[in-house]
């Protein structure tokens, strides 16, 4: 399945990763299973943000609550690998839930997208669109 990503969402993730370096950044992706409309930065509350990420639980709860009340759908999540590759790490694999959401990983100015499948991560090709 080809994913569509807005240029604004892509730019927001790259800018957030650049600002956060050398620590990992993280955020929430809004849209649908086929389209990422928006990327919203959230706090990385992990005790070791130079090597790991944890999305602020309150921000995550608020995003899902808003979606249930008719707001934007949580399509997935993003985080950065400031000293690594734009691919799921062993830690990412261990943290994955297999819920089918999108994971975006930012490294060295590149963004890759993955589907969190029950059998592991599946790479997604994507097209960038304005808007």
From TrEMBL:
Do the record's keywords include Hydrolase?
Answer: yes
Lineage, highest ranks first? Bacteria, Pseudomonadati, Pseudomonadota, Alphaproteobacteria, Sphingomonadales
Keywords attached to this entry: Hydrolase, Metal-binding, Metalloprotease, Protease, Zinc
* Tagged with keyword Protease: yes
Q: Where is the MPN domain?
A: 3-131
Q: Which CDD domains match?
A: MPN_like
Where are the residues of the annotated region Disordered?
A: 71-94
Highest taxon of the lineage: Bacteria
Q: Which InterPro entries match?
A: JAB_dom_prok, JAMM/MPN+_dom, MPN, VirAsm_ModProt
Task: Kindly provide the name given to this protein in its UniProt entry.
Answer: M67 family metallopeptidase
Q: Which Pfam family name is an example for this entry?
A: Prok-JAB
């Amino acid at each position: 399945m080809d994913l569509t990503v807005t240029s604004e969402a892509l730019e927001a993730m790259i800018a957030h990763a650049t600002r956060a370096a050398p620590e990992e950044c993280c955020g929430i992706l809004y849209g649908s299973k086929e389209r990422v409309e928006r990327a919203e930065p959230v706090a990385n509350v992990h005790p070791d943000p130079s090597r790991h990420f944890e999305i602020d639980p309150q921000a995550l709860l608020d995003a899902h609550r808003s979606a249930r009340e008719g707001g934007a759908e949580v399509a997935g999540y993003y985080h950065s690998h400031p000293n690594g590759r734009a691919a799921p790490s062993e830690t990412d694999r261990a943290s994955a839930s297999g819920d089918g959401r999108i994971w975006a990983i930012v490294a060295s100015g590149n963004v890759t997208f993955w589907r969190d499948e029950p059998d592991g991560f599946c790479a997604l090709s994507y097209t960038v669109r304005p808007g």
